[in-house]
Design brief:
- The structure holds two protein chains of two kinds.
- By secondary structure, chain A is of the alpha/beta class.
- In chain A, 32% of the residues lie in helices and 24% in strands.
- In chain A, strand 9 and strand 10 form a beta hairpin.
- The two termini of chain A are 25 Å apart.
- By secondary structure, chain B is of the alpha/beta class.
- Chain B contains twelve helices and twelve strands.
- In chain B, helix 3 packs across helix 4.
- The chains are: A alpha/beta, B alpha/beta.
- At the A-B interface, helix 6, helix 7, helix 8, helix 9 and helix 10 of A face helix 7, helix 8, helix 9 and helix 10 of B.
């Protein structure tokens, strides 16, 4: 594996939820997760809605104040004190290209804002040149600079969001479902752009998505989350060919594959029921209520990630 | 061949907006056999949902069917009165929508809403109607139906609500079930549950299903036959294997190249260039022509006719005509 760029150690993010008049209980959105992202690498983070993958991404960038654990960037912990400095190195691309751009700002100002915030440009001319360079990177024309976000299609807006993230020359970008709001043909354009930018600029991604085919395509390694916990991390090809955790196994088998012969030939493992509410987490392993292998031990103790060889980590008592 | 259950012939549907007429569906034709699962696939704005709504005649106020025919068991639906259509909806043909969060009324219990469908379309009343509701809920795999009936939609998860929608749609054992993006709002594992449910119910009840979706994976998994739409027109139609393994329209080919290849996941994607079509400003010729790499002069000016590729496959692309000419010239 390449040199570590970002290390997440025992990250916890709890939100207080009111129950009754004056009582609050913690909603454990992210509960003690650890992983690393190498330089210029893409780590995919998958899971179903409510599993905490978006919260994890936001907590890494300190868009929330984490309840516990730490994030190290290049060996240096990210704290409230150095966050301005850190955000020059770590950026984010958001899911919804419609609500993540200010409708009253021109494209030029949207992309220019990080440059202004971090005082990266000495004068207007320099700023203008930098903005045009960024627009060129993401495939927008110079004449788009004076337009407003509503004048663009979803795919183009996502390009604006990516240009904004790239403005500070970051080494690490958290991409939170960057293509799920886009049509299939446009998705491919944006995915290719992410790959080209990585090749050109050597930037690392944490690619959060629920579309497993897309994540498999773009990621070197994949982490699977369930109810705030990481249940399995492995190389993406390894994970797809030899999933170990029962949840990963059923998740992969549930993905419809766009190939009639392949998809009809395979055995689908259908999970019973829904994901439990994060407020009423099962004791022990969070997945045990839907798991077909669950034993007594699973109800008592929560398994931790253990190495199964070849950089393949799994948190399961049975498998 | 036996009479078709549903036959859509040269359907045109337009919306009349302040910005002008939007021709959402432009000459769509397809047929549906009893017990068949037909997939309509296309991107947003391709007219796939409007086609489904046109069949049910539940278009928004500004929308109107401007041409073509929809034949149900040989009868022209456009000649039916609204009263007759009300009988058609539910009894002959039901629809489930994309968003199970908004298609149920939040202020009535599940039981109330399901009872309405049963009372409206059948002779059952009172306890008999309740019994039918419970039977339907059980059919779609909802535990403790008696308890569930008294609950409100907010007390159910997305997957549960979609099950309730399906149960409601099946209240009168329709001949056709239209599913408009039934799993788009759901998670992968829940999607698998719902697709499995639709498949098993279809087998049990022998109804025909029209599955409208943008997800090529779902289509490959579920459908016997596929209709590919772009810009309100049909690009090609045929059996699932023909469309996936022998695509004969440049748009379908592009679509299949732009998703990750199952056999070689790391292979670079080949996107379709350009941006989705603006329905207010349709090109004169083939709708896909502005984004097509293989576009020829004729594509700009003439709308391609549907060409029969083989008995399971029809496509509307000038490339096929060119190939046919070249074959003849070469001989």
């Amino acid at each position: 594996m390449s040199e570590t760029l970002v290390e997440v150690r025992n990250l916890k993010q709890y939100f207080p939820v009111k129950v009754g008049f004056a009582r609050t209980v913690p909603l454990k959105a992210v509960d003690d997760i650890s992983f690393t992202v190498g330089k210029g690498e893409t780590l995919g983070l998958v899971g179903e809605s409510g599993c905490g993958k978006t919260t994890a991404g936001r907590a890494i960038l300190r868009l929330y104040k984490p309840t516990g654990g730490e994030v190290l960037f290049d060996g240096e912990p990210v704290t409230d004190k150095n966050i301005m400095l850190m955000r020059k190195k770590m950026q984010m691309v958001f899911q919804d290209p419609y609500s993540s751009l200010d409708p009253r700002m021109t494209v030029e100002d949207i992309i220019g804002e990080p440059l202004d915030v971090h005082h990266l440009c000495a004068n207007r001319k320099e700023r203008r040149e930098k903005i045009l360079e960024l627009m060129n990177y993401v495939g927008l024309n110079a004449e788009h600079a004076r337009r407003y976000a509503h004048e663009f299609s979803g795919g183009q807006r996502q390009r604006i969001g990516i240009a904004r993230a790239l403005a500070v020359d970051p080494q690490f970008i958290v991409c939170d479902e960057p293509v799920s709001a886009l049509d299939v043909s446009i998705q491919a354009q944006v995915i290719n752009m992410f790959e080209d930018l990585q090749e050109k600029l050597g930037v690392a991604y944490l690619f959060i998505a629920h579309d497993l085919l897309v994540v498999h395509h773009i990621s070197k390694r994949i982490a699977v989350m369930y109810l705030g916990k990481i249940v399995e991390i492995a190389d993406s090809d390894e994970l797809n060919s030899h999933p170990i955790h029962p949840y990963t196994e059923s998740l992969l088998s549930a993905v419809p594959i766009p190939d009639p012969d392949v998809t009809r030939a395979r055995q689908r493992i259908i999970l019973e029921g829904d994901v439990p509410s994060p407020l009423k987490r099962p004791s022990g392993c969070p997945f045990r209520t839907r798991c077909r292998y669950a034993t007594e031990q699973c109800a008592q103790e929560c398994p931790t990630l253990t190495d199964r060889g070849g950089d393949h980590q799994v948190a399961c008592w049975v498998k | 061949m036996s009479e078709k259950l549903l036959s859509v012939q040269d359907l045109h549907t337009s919306f009349f907006t302040d910005a002008g007429e939007v021709q959402a569906v432009n000459g769509v034709s397809f047929e549906l056999d009893p017990g068949e699962i037909l997939g309509i696939v296309g991107e947003s704005g391709s007219g796939k949902s409007v086609t489904a709504y046109s069949i049910m005649q539940i278009l928004a106020d500004t929308g109107r069917i401007t041409g073509g025919k929809i034949l149900f068991k040989g009868e022209d639906l456009s000649l039916w009165t609204e009263k007759q259509m009300q009988g058609f909806r539910g009894k002959n043909c039901s629809i489930i929508f994309q968003d199970p969060m908004t298609s149920l009324n939040p202020v009535f219990t599940i039981g109330d809403q399901m009872r309405e469908a049963v009372v409206l379309h059948t002779e059952r009343r009172g306890a008999e109607a309740d019994a039918r509701v419970m039977e339907l809920l059980e059919l779609v795999g909802i535990n403790e139906p008696a308890k569930r009936m008294k609950q409100y939609p907010f007390e159910h998860s997305g997957g549960m609500r979609q099950r309730v929608m399906i149960a409601m749609a099946l209240a009168c054992e329709p001949d056709i079930l239209i599913a408009d993006e039934p799993t788009t709002a759901l998670d992968v594992t829940i999607q698998a549950q719902i697709l499995e449910l639709i498949q098993s119910l279809q087998k049990k009840m022998g109804m025909a299903v029209i599955l409208v979706t943008h997800d090529l994976g779902v289509i490959a998994d579920m459908c016997d036959n596929i209709v590919v739409m772009y810009g309100g027109r049909i690009c090609e139609r045929g059996t699932a294997r023909e469309i996936f393994y022998n695509p004969r329209h440049e748009y379908t080919k592009g679509l299949l190249r732009s998703i990750p290849n199952v056999n070689n996941m790391k292979k670079k994607l080949v996107p379709i260039a350009g941006t989705p079509i603006n329905m207010l400003n349709l090109p004169k010729g083939c709708a896909f022509c502005p984004r097509c790499d293989a576009a020829m002069k004729i594509c700009l000016t003439e709308i391609p006719e549907e060409l029969v590729i083989n008995e399971d496959h029809k496509a509307s692309c000038w490339m096929n005509v060119k190939a046919a000419y070249e074959e003849v010239a070469g001989q």
